[in-house]
Amino acid sequence: MPKVISIHSYRGGTGKSNFTANLATSVAAQGYRVGIVDTDLPSPGIHTLFGLDPQNITTTLNSFLQGSSPIEKAAYDVSAAVGLGENKRLFLVPASINADQIATVLKSGYDVKLLNEGFRRLVKALSLDYLFIDTHPGLSKETFLSIAISHILILILRPDKQDFQGTAVTVDVARQLKVRHMMLVVNKALSSLNFDALSHKVEEIYKTPVVAVFPLSEEMVQLASEGVFCVEKPDHAIAHKFASVAQQIIDQA
To answer: Domain span at residue 115?
Structure first.
């Protein structure tokens, strides 16, 4: 049965899109058919990690939401971009970076029920095993939809007081929406911190498992979103962390 995994953070700048790209790629590398949908319509960007040139993106999630295209027509096969072999597939449905279309979303919003239907149609049309949803930071009716339909919700936070407070709100909302499985990821932690102690502290605060603590990596920053880190540096310790979280997703699902 296909599984939906939403990746969310209360605040921007947590590395959510980078995390989504690396985790989805790591799951696809295990031989699964994986899709990603960029629902961060006000500030899209995950397409850059997969080397998609905006000039070559003719159909987007916006096209579907505006009724001009089936959602599967907006799915780009990015398997080759991340070096996946035969029988391993990764698809991306990007959001539009066209200023007018972004302004339209900000002004008028979109039909969240239609988006839900689009998720279902995409899973069926592409025979997906996993669908990853890269959400817009914060809480809104669109975010509530993604959270509510998720089999697994992964919340990303930094070791920062504002992130801690915002994550507390999100965890409460997720519990009210009866999310089936919730996981926490601490990202951009300084190497001087005790990761085990930090993980324990976060688990105690939210009564939710921490599946990984990722360091603030200068090498990832240097990559500057020009590629998926676990593909560019497959032997790096961070790549192994992504593989570990991917396995936990597979085992949980």
So the answer is: 3-252
pLDDT at 252: 84
Question: Contact at 8 Å (CB) between 73 and 8?
Answer: no
Q: Given a cut of 70, is residue 253 above it in pLDDT? A: no
A 10 A CB-CB count for 113 gives 9
Please give the model's pTM, rounded to 2 decimal places: 0.95
Nearest partner of 59 among 113, 101, 87, judged by Cα: 101
52, with CB counted inside 10 A (0-12, 13-18, 19+), is: middle
Domain of 163, CATH number, reads 3.40.50.300
Query: In sequence order, which residues have a C-beta less than 8 Å from that of residue 3 and are 6 or more positions away?
Result: 129, 130, 131, 151, 152, 253
- Other beta carbons within 10 Å of 64: 25
User: Are 47 and 92 contacting, i.e. CB atoms less than 8 angstroms apart?
Assistant: yes
HSE, side-chain direction, 13 A CA sphere, residue 240: 3
Beta strands in the chain (DSSP E): 3-8, 33-38, 76-77, 89-93, 130-134, 152-157, 181-189, 210-215
- Residues 6+ away with beta carbon under 8 Å from 94: 38, 44, 46, 47, 52, 57, 60, 61, 74, 76
Residue-wise pLDDT tens digits, 54-83? 889 999 999 999 999 999 999 999 999 999
Task: State how many domains the chain has.
Answer: 1
Tokens linked to 15: 């590395």
